[in-house]
Write a structure and sequence with these properties.
By secondary structure, this protein is an alpha/beta fold. It has 18 helices and 15 strands. Strand 3 and strand 4 form a beta hairpin. Helix 2 crosses helix 3. The radius of gyration is 21 Å and the shape is globular. Bound molecules: pyridoxal-5'-phosphate (PLP). Pyridoxal-5'-phosphate (PLP) binds next to helix 10.
Length: about 450
């Protein structure tokens, strides 16, 4: 399988190169040249299913038995025998729990695999990389956990001092591995992101350090998430509708890809919080940037959904030049309009979108607790509220549960009076010693820190 950039001006690459590259060098995102069909004879366990779904995307780059071993290792870190178990919420409405990985959010599904893929490819090539990233919470801890035992990877994660939750911070700062460093930056999440971008734009530094990224645009992350959509249709019995709490559009895009591959998915329902740029787009054909405001579901507080570019490329019949021009107008004007025929072809048959305010989020947490005694996290609750709105008789609905309730205990306690307990493997998290550096919002200081990190 070969991969092309959504902006049409980057080299065509194979799987391993795409994994290491992350972003294409024309600023675009890599997508496979075509969407393969799901292979027949998919295995029955989750790691076997995963290796089968990945096979057409990986091609000859990694041997099939090696891929199966990497999948087995990645998903053995999940604390449930089904990896992504399904529970019944109410008649016809199921939850798929994506949060049984080490850091309690769905990002583990992709990052446990991505860390191992990186390590495998780097070992073959006898290379080392320095991963740098900025986090507002979930991605940093999941990325660290995914690479913490990898000899060929050093990682530095920047987070805004005082602006991530205690559980999220401790999941990063209590990891005691020689290749892991965290830095509390005196600034906001945007400052952290700007520092990371500046390091990548500093060509000499980027090359000297062999910088790399594992952000949500990495193709392997999107690919890893396709598997649980296939698994959902196998276990519930398709065709089904799926509702996805959405931020960067990575998760729901993976559902769209599963559908292109032939999985019996009917509608994909995008659930937003008050930062509802996507919901407004799906309901109005216009993407219009407004400010970001904080909500009870912080991992979905985004301005522009980076992975949407991959769907836009399809909507432009895979014309990279048109996609690039459209995105550049969007950056200048803050507005993106899609033609009605593009909408009718690509959006209407598959996507729907709804929104939940913080008030709706708390009500959904409370109603699930009152109905079946289960605690759900605020991101999942956004999904549940929207799924209930869109549910249709005779079509099973499945909502993706993207975080464990103990990751966001304050909102859960506010809604129910009950404070969710951390699972056993993290029960002593609040007593573990923390290791973190503190730096000013200053590029030279951060670069010097990264350069001094030699694992
Ligand atoms: C990252 C995240 C999301 C949003 O997922 P996207 O792939 O960015 O749309 C939703 N819920 C939780 C808990 C997350 O960590």
């Amino acid at each position: 399988m070969r991969y092309v950039s959504t902006r049409g001006a980057a080299p065509v690459l194979g799987f391993s190169d795409v994994v290491l590259a992350g972003l294409a060098n024309d600023g675009g995102l890599y997508v496979p040249e075509s969407w393969p069909a799901l292979p027949s004879n998919l295995g029955s366990t989750y790691p076997e299913l995963a290796a089968g779904v990945f096979a057409p995307y990986v091609g000859d780059d990694i041997a099939a038995d090696t891929m199966l071993r990497l999948c087995r290792e990645a998903y053995s870190t999940f604390r449930h025998p089904d990896v992504v178990p399904i529970v019944d919420l109410e008649p016809g409405h199921h939850l798929m729990e994506l949060f049984h990985g080490p850091t309690l959010a769905f990002k583990d599904v992709a990052l446990q695999l991505l860390g191992r893929l990186f390590d495998h490819i780097l070992t073959e090539r006898q290379q080392k990389v320095m991963i740098v990233g900025a986090t507002s919470g979930d991605t940093g801890s999941a990325a660290i956990d995914g690479v913490k035992d990898c000899a060929n990877i050093n990682i530095v994660i920047l987070y805004p001092e005082g602006r991530v939750s205690e559980v999220q911070r401790r999941q990063m700062t209590t990891v005691n591995s020689p290749n892991v460093r965290t830095v509390a930056i005196d600034g906001t999440f945007d400052d952290c992101q700007d520092l990371v971008k500046a390091m990548f734009n500093h060509a000499e530094f980027r090359e000297a350090q062999n910088l790399s990224a594992v952000n949500s645009i990495n193709w392997a992350r999107v690919m890893a998430q396709v598997v649980y959509y296939v698994e959902a249709t196998r276990r519930v019995g398709g065709p089904i509708d799926v509702t996805v709490p959405t931020g960067n559009f990575g998760n729901v895009l993976s559902g769209w890809i599963a559908k292109q591959m032939g999985a019996p998915l009917r509608r994909l329902i995008v659930a937003s919080n008050d930062n509802d740029i996507l919901t407004r787009f799906f309901n109005s054909h216009t993407m219009d940037v407004t400010g970001v405001h904080p909500t009870l579901s912080p991992s979905m507080d985004i301005q522009v959904s980076s992975n949407f570019e991959r769907l836009l490329f399809e909507m432009n019949n895979r014309d990279g030049a048109i996609t690039a021009a459209q995105l550049s107008r969007f950056r200048d004007k803050g507005k993106l309009v899609v033609e009605p025929d593009q909408f009718d072809q690509w959006i209407t048959p598959t996507f729907a979108a709804g929104r939940a305010s913080d008030h709706d989020t708390l009500s959904a947490i409370r109603s699930v607790y009152e109905n079946i005694g289960m605690l759900i996290d605020p991101h999942t609750a956004v999904g549940v509220k929207v799924a209930r709105e869109f549910a249709e008789d005779g079509v099973p609905m499945l909502t993706m549960a993207t975080a464990h309730p103990a990751k966001f205990p304050d909102a859960v306690e506010r809604a129910t009076g009950e404070r969710p307990a951390l699972p056993e493997h993290l029960a002593d998290l609040l007593d573990r010693p923390e290791h973190t550096a503190h730096l000013p919002n200053d590029l030279a200081a951060v670069e010097a820190f990264v350069a001094s990190h030699d694992g």
